[in-house]
Amino acid sequence: MIRYPLCMLSLVVAACLSCGNVRAGDGDLDPRFGPNGDGRLTIGIDTGAEDIAVQAVPALDGSIYVVGRTSPGIGIVRLTADGLPDPQFAPMSYPSDTSEYWLGASAAVQAANGDLIVAGHYFGLPQMDGPYWIACRFDAAGVPVGAFGDGEIAPGCTDKFGAGVRKEGEIRDLLIHPAGRIVFAGHIVDGADKRRAALSSLTPDGDPDPTFDDGVGEANLVLPHGNVVPESEYNALALGPNGTLLGAGEYIVSPDDSDVLVTMHFQNGTAFQQFGANGSAIHALNLGPVGARRDTALGIEPMAGGMFGVVGTAQFSLAGHTGGFVLWIKPNGSLETSLGNNGRTVLQEDGLDLRLYDIERTPKGKVVIGGSLMPVDAPDVTLATVLRLDQAGDADPTFAAASLAVFAFSDDATPDEFDDETIHPSEIFDLAMQGNRILAAGYQLLPPEAGGADFGLARLGDGRLFGDGLESFGP
């Protein structure tokens, strides 16, 4: 367990907000990135709207896509490799006509031909009917690919999955499998109005994939808990050993009690029965003390040797105090006890809430985690947070000031304490590696008089950047 006194976090904030030199050390905001030379930027797509970035996608040509949701639709921005607006790509909200449907993005991935595939959900207007699954495909210029899907909801989009019908629920993540299929993870709502963790697959053209477990694998994820069949949902998806699919999310026993859900599936969607406890294909873990607590996995990342890391948020007290965790899991579903504390790295601090949403493995073999931090007694003050762990699964003291970097996406002030008058609330939902540097995407709330939120993007160093641009891949 790591401990961060409030005074130490204040020093970290100050350090991250005053990166004035040309070298970005481990955990420093990169002064070579962004229009203001301070390693960060905010992007507003619709004035007064809640523009929330959910994914940073380093593109094949070196540019960066930032994808998220705006109040009316899917938001997409393209930047240069150094975080400057791309003059050839205007920030877009799709579709432009929102009179019938309201689309929202949860995840995005770039295809080998440069197209961008975005997944999430939509609502039917004006009754806000839904949400329902949806996936859309855009070319590198942001133009919808008309040949993708049926285009019924919007050109270049489809809401037909499984047996060719729409699915009530939300997609939370996706990947392009080496076999060519596009795999989606999230939850569906069944006939009893219960959430069920679900996987589905489309062909590259956006048609339902008839070879993928009848399109939806949620039947494999219904596991009784006593006399109760819990609800469940996937929040993250990753490629596992030998082309398998790794899912991470939440196993909901009751409204006040949930466990971390981790599963493995073959590439065709059928469950890998030798994974987890009792040959159930499901691994459910309770992170908090004995009693009803909410524990949920929000990110998953493959590691060396077939192992993978699962990150999320756990409730560690009846008062609702939350902390973060990383689970180090072997290919058979058991914990890798040589890492962390018997396979678990727990991150918490009295008086602070820490929420962790994503995990990435760096080229140096270390692990970075993104999320947010807030004082329990000042819930309106939220700061974007990036932590790094070493190869042993412990907090890395060589990263930033105390193994974590804390910042807001656009504040110029250097606060010496958590103060909602000087810090614009910021939060990270996604991390991506741009070579040996860390991209962190999320949002920043605007002042109350303006309303709404803007996309937020930052770049941090993960290896010393020298004057000639060479990067050190030290131990």
From TrEMBL:
* UniProt superkingdom: Bacteria
Transferase as UniProt keyword: no
Keywords on record: Signal
- The keyword Signal appears for this protein: yes
**Signal sequence bounds:** 1-24
Instruction: Name it.
Output: Putative delta-60 repeat protein
Organism whose genome encodes this protein:
Chiayiivirga flava
